[in-house]
Design goal:
Elements: E1 9-13, H1 25-33, E2 37-40, H2 55-67, E3 73-76, H3 83-87, E4 101-104, H4 109-117, E5 122-124, H5 136-148, E6 150-156, E7 163-173, H6 174-180, E8 192-199, H7 203-215, E9 222-231, H8 244-249, E10 256-257, E11 271-273, E12 275-282, E13 285-291
Parallel strand pairs: 1-2, 1-3, 3-4, 4-5, 7-8, 8-9, 9-10
Antiparallel strand pairs: 5-11, 6-13, 7-12, 12-13
Length: 294
C-alpha cells in the first residue's frame, strides 16, 4: 500500500445507505484543502428506499471503484446497512494485484474482515457523513495514516490496570461481527487482538452476542480483547446489572483493555486494521501506536 501525496485521488463510495449532497460538501472542501482530488461513485447521490441505489447498482459502482487504478484510496461516505448485501458478489481478483486503502467503520466491518482475509490492510476510521459533527482529529488521524503510515495517540483514563499489549488488531462492530460467524466470505484472523464496539444496544443483547462468540470458540483464538466505545447503551426498567467489560470478562480469561477511542463516539480515531498495534497503560495514560512501514 502506497502513501498518499498531494494531487492523489480519493474515491467516495456509498455501498450502503444514501447520502445527501449537503452532507458531503464540507468534507469535500476539507479534502481539497489537503490538496487531494475527489472522484464520486456513480451511485453516490442515488436513493432507493434507504439505500444509495438498488443492490445491483451499488455492487457494480463499488466494483468499479475497486478496479479503478486512478484511485489511491476509497472512502466509504456512511454506514447504516447495505454492505453485507453486496459483499459476496464482489470480484477481488484485480484489487489484490493493485490494492488501495479502504476507509470506514461500522457497516463496513465485514469489508474490513474480507480485506484482512485477503492479506490487505484497511483503515478503520470515521466517515464523511459525520464530518463537522465529531472531533476533526478523527479525520486528521486518517490523513496521518494515509500520508505517513503511522500514528501515536495518548488518552487519559482512570481505573485501568497497567498493561502492555501488542498484536494484529482485527474487528469492528460487535453486531456485524456476530452476523459474520458462518459467513463463507469471511474468515477470522487467528491470534489477533479482537476489537469490538457498538451503538444503542441493550446490555442483554451484548451479553447474548458475547455468548454467541464464546460458543463458537472465537475467544479461544485471540491474544486479547480491545473494547472501544459502546455508545448510548440501553437498559430495561430492571437493570441488567453488568457492564460491557464484565460481560466479556465472564467469557474469556484473555486480557481486556477498555476505553479505546474508536467507535460511534465524538472521538473515533483511526487505526490500521489487520496490522500490528501496540497499546500500553501506565500512570493512567493509554498510549496507542502503529507504524505500517515499521
Amino acid at each position: 500500500m502506497k502513501l498518499l501525496k498531494k494531487g492523489d485521488t480519493i474515491g467516495l463510495a456509498a455501498p450502503a445507505r444514501y447520502i445527501e449532497p449537503k452532507e458531503l460538501s464540507l468534507f469535500i472542501k476539507w479534502l481539497e484543502y489537503k490538496q487531494l482530488k475527489v472522484k464520486l461513485s456513480e451511485n453516490i447521490f442515488h436513493k432507493f428506499h434507504q439505500f444509495a441505489g438498488d443492490k445491483n447498482f451499488r455492487r457494480d459502482c463499488f466494483q468499479n471503484l475497486l478496479e479503478d487504478n486512478s484511485l489511491n484510496a476509497i472512502w466509504i461516505v456512511r454506514g447504516g446497512y447495505g454492505t453485507t448485501q453486496i459483499l459476496g458478489e464482489l470480484d477481488w481478483s484485480n484489487f489484490v494485484k493493485n490494492p488501495k486503502w479502504v476507509i470506514g467503520f461500522s457497516d463496513i466491518t465485514l469489508l474490513h474482515l474480507k480485506l484482512a482475509s485477503l492479506g490487505i490492510p484497511s483503515i478503520h476510521g470515521d466517515m464523511p457523513s459525520r464530518f463537522g459533527k465529531v472531533n476533526i482529529e478523527n479525520f486528521e488521524s486518517i490523513y496521518q495514516i494515509l500520508t505517513y503510515g503511522k500514528y501515536e495517540y495518548t488518552v487519559e483514563i482512570a481505573n485501568c490496570e497497567e498493561i502492555n499489549l501488542s498484536g494484529k488488531i482485527v474487528g469492528g462492530n460487535l453486531s456485524l461481527l456476530c452476523h459474520a460467524i458462518g459467513n463463507p466470505n469471511i474468515s477470522f484472523v487467528q491470534n489477533c487482538l479482537l476489537f469490538l464496539e457498538d451503538l444503542e444496544e441493550y446490555y442483554y443483547h451484548v451479553d447474548r452476542m458475547a455468548y454467541q462468540m464464546y460458543y463458537h470458540g472465537i475467544f479461544n483464538h485471540i491474544k486479547g480483547l480491545l473494547l472501544g466505545s459502546f455508545s448510548d447503551m440501553r437498559d430495561n426498567d430492571v437493570p441488567f446489572g453488568f457492564s460491557v467489560k464484565a460481560i466479556f470478562q465472564d467469557k474469556t480469561i484473555k486480557p481486556i483493555i477498555t476505553h479505546l477511542p474508536f467507535g460511534h463516539s465524538y472521538n473515533n480515531f483511526a487505526f490500521i486494521h489487520a496490522q500490528n498495534i501496540c497499546i500500553s497503560i501506565q500512570n493512567k495514560i493509554m498510549r496507542i501506536q502503529q507504524n505500517y512501514y515499521g
